[in-house]
Write a structure and sequence with these properties.
single chain, 406 residues, TIM Barrel, eight-stranded parallel barrel, 17 helices
């Protein structure tokens, strides 16, 4: 039986000094006032090039949640994790460019560099991409709006919409598709999995459509492309099952990375302001039930689904291992992987690794100014999720006490 209370395993990779820093950081993030003040000051301080700003960020929140500013810096973290049988999902921290087409082309090349680097490392089986890193948000929004006005399956609606775009928009979208094809082609040749991040609901339909089309091309004999499914949306369990049916029909393996979600407050606010029904689950319990039902559905269909349980929920991770046990399947089944964010839930990650699960840390990297949006989300997450922060702190303090007694 896996125990997520084993702090010796959870923090074996951290020195006493690193553990004390983590204790300070999570204590600070437990204060909404301090977090809100920091969130207001951080972007301004970076833009204004205020003295010591980068060094303070680098030695605190950046060091806790980010692998480094470059691939070379990140390699040291990946190597350290590898010693404890923990793999890495590399994430180049670009979140939509301000440099237009040139910026999107640059992002494509950076993603390809990540894939080529990962292919040289036994410990890095996956990398993550955001479609908003390679195409204009406004175009995704327009395609999504058109798709909502059409009837039929996701792919049928997608192709109908392409006919409604202007010549310039068609060319722009085709350039985006070509960027994604180059990334996926490189990943397929190098046997690196590509995890396509989920986006806001009002741009998600074209992201889902293009990701499924990429799976139809690259997931025939092995799993290269994974879609991210946010179960805090009330329609995503049904979407998972529809995606499975599409995989059976088209004869490809469905790659499904299951998360709870990242845009809840933004989604609810927009729905209220624009007067449409919120896409978010009515409560946490309903979200948890759908998440665990999605896990069960995937485990029951592992011959056609490759599952990534990307969760900080202890029960969901434990439940997955129990389902595998019930079916007599190994914890390191080739179609089952677990993952948590770097800097969080070490008690889950390292104890899963000790139980021979295939498990990784999601490891972002990039210049500080580029990963600020990511760091702001982590700070907000830990500030609003009091239970999560409290759990992190209690485990860190427990381990500090254990080491003192040695």
């Amino acid at each position: 039986m896996i125990s997520f209370d084993n702090t010796e395993s959870a923090f074996a990779y951290k020195s006493d000094k690193e553990l004390k820093k983590a204790n300070f950081l999570f204590s600070t993030m437990g204060s909404p006032f301090l977090v809100n003040m920091g969130l207001k000051l951080m972007p301004f301080a970076i833009k204004a090039h205020l003295p010591f700003t980068k060094s303070i960020i680098r030695s605190t929140i950046f060091k806790q949640f980010v692998g480094g500013e470059t691939l070379q810096e990140t390699a040291a973290v990946a190597d350290k994790l590898g010693k404890y049988n923990v793999q890495v999902i590399l994430d180049y921290g670009v979140e939509g460019g301000d440099d237009g087409e040139e910026g999107y082309d640059h992002a494509r090349e950076e993603f390809i560099k990540v894939i080529e680097y990962a292919a040289t490392q036994a410990n890095i089986p996956f990398m993550s991409i955001k479609i908003t890193g390679i195409v204009r948000f406004g175009l995704l929004e327009k395609i999504d709006a058109y798709m909502h006005d059409c009837e039929g399956s996701l792919i049928k609606r997608y192709y109908k919409v392409l006919e409604q775009l202007s010549a310039g928009e068609k060319d722009e979208w085709e350039r985006a598709v070509q960027r994604l094809l180059k990334i996926c082609d490189c990943a397929g040749k190098n046997n690196i999995g590509v995890l396509v991040d989920a986006e806001e609901t009002w741009i998600q339909d074209p992201v889902d459509a293009i990701t499924i089309l990429m799976m139809d091309t690259y997931n025939k004999n092995k799993v290269v492309i994974y879609n991210t499914i946010q179960l805090y949306r009330h329609d995503r369990l049904a979407f998972l099952k529809d995606s499975y049916e599409a995989a059976l029909e088209k004869n490809f393996i469905l790659g499904a990375k299951l998360v709870r979600g990242a845009y809840m407050e933004k989604e609810r606010k927009r729905a209220a302001e624009m007067g449409y029904a919120s896409p978010i689950q009515p409560d946490k319990n309903t979200c948890d039930n759908d998440y665990n039902a999605a896990v069960k559905f995937c485990v029951e269909h592992l011959e056609n689904i490759a599952l990534i349980v990307a969760s900080h929920n202890e029960y969901s991770n434990l439940y997955t291992t129990q389902l595998l046990d019930e079916k007599g399947l190994p914890h390191n089944h080739p179609h089952v992987h677990f993952s948590q964010l770097y800097g969080m839930s070490d008690n889950i990650t390292f104890n899963l690794a000790n139980s021979h699960c295939s498990v990784s840390k999601y490891l972002p990297f990039g210049p500080i100014k580029d990963v600020i949006p990511y760091l702001m989300r982590r700070a907000q997450e830990n500030s609003s999720a009091v239970g999560q922060t409290g759990r992190e702190l209690s485990l860190i303090k427990k381990e500090m006490q254990r080491r003192k007694k040695k």
